[in-house]
Design goal:
- The chain is an alpha/beta fold.
- Helices cover about 25% and strands about 25% of the residues.
- The protein has 2 domains: about 280 residues, Zn peptidases (Aminopeptidase, 3-Layer(aba) Sandwich), CATH 3.40.630.10; about 130 residues, Aminopeptidase i, Domain 2 (Roll).
- The chain has 10 helices and 20 strands.
- Helix 2 packs parallel to helix 5 and helix 5 crosses helix 10.
- The site of zinc ion has 6 residues, from helix 5.
Amino acid sequence: MPTQHGRALCEFIDASPTAFHAVDSAEAMLKAWGGQRLSEKEVWDLQPQQLYYLVRDDASLIAFRLGTAPLATAGFLLAGAHTDAPGLRARIDKAVAAKGLERVAVEVYGGPINATWLDRPLSLAGRVLLQAAAGRVVSRLVNFSRPLAIIPNLAIHLNRDLNKGFEYPMHTAMLPLVAANGAAPAGEGVQGSWLLSALARELAVDPAAILSAELTFYEAAPSVIFGEHDELLAASRIDNLEGCHAILSAFCACRATAHTQVAVLFDNEEIGSTSTRGANSALLRDVLERIVLAQASTAQDFYRAAASSLLLSVDGAQAFHPGYADKFDPDYAPVLNKGPAIKLNANIRYATEAKGEAYIRSLCTRHQLPCQRFVMRADLSPGSTIGPMTSANTGIRTIDIGLPMLAMHSVRETAGTVDHDSLIALLQAAYMEGPAVAD
Ligand code: ZN
């Protein structure tokens, strides 16, 4: 079975334990394809067919390849995904120690399946803000890249009902254990935090130079491909690094077209997208407006371009799970390795409407690509994506599509490698064909 891009996806995921690292990985891909970084603080002088990208706050990225035709008539073809994933955010300067056991205080980011984080080696990564010379503050990525913590379960003997369902006390029981140094040191409870010291050692800086940090625990074990024909992939953060990697792979390999191609990677989707760098911000609209203004001849050009554009919002879809068949509508449950799913919801939790669905189905038919449909049971409500907010903020017609996956928001999710190839082919076809939809 072909898995042309499966290994590359594993490498991308393993190199991207946080949104900051995902943007770093994306930047490496874009640079390898001749991408030129823009600053939001500078004036943009844009050349047709050139690949540009910009990064906001280290965690969101927009890349575009300027088309050969005026944007007012040719429009944008965009594809977007999110860089963040649910997890446990470390508090760097809080000391938590008892009887010589040191743990790291955490906050929950988004909606992880809590139980999956227990009893497996965890590592830690993120960004750190450091005091530099002459009053400057510098941002540095950090990735410990080795097991350094574990969240131990309570023995079954101490809670015989554990297997009947259990709500983990997040503030007290979900703290990763990082050290067991025998007897408690004198003055325990008031000494400095283990993490602050470990971070200073890792970065080879004075602890006093660490001004702030956003660090997230992640599963230390790497992604794996398995199955009789290497058709399955189990990894952390498939939601939604799979989408990011598919978009970047398709976008980078395309050549310039009349319309302008855009790849959008937003942070903060898992916590509602409302931030300076999330989908519910002015980021995308501002960037598109600036691209149009760089070549505009009239003030109406941006609005004309938006009206001629199309956005594919790429995020995971709930794959049919044979152990829980009653949770699915059997006629609208996507199956692993049968292709990307068009995501539909009457209450616009997904942005797809009829013209968008028609666009994708026509594209897939003409390019002989597999395609499924995902609709939740009428008595269940789906999650959402960057799609509805992005379409509301920009006025651009948006279609939600995504790969079927199992165990979404588990520390280890499962997807099909064949699907990843199919999604890249679909995105490539859309990037090349452009945004023309039925009027
Ligand atoms: Zn997602």
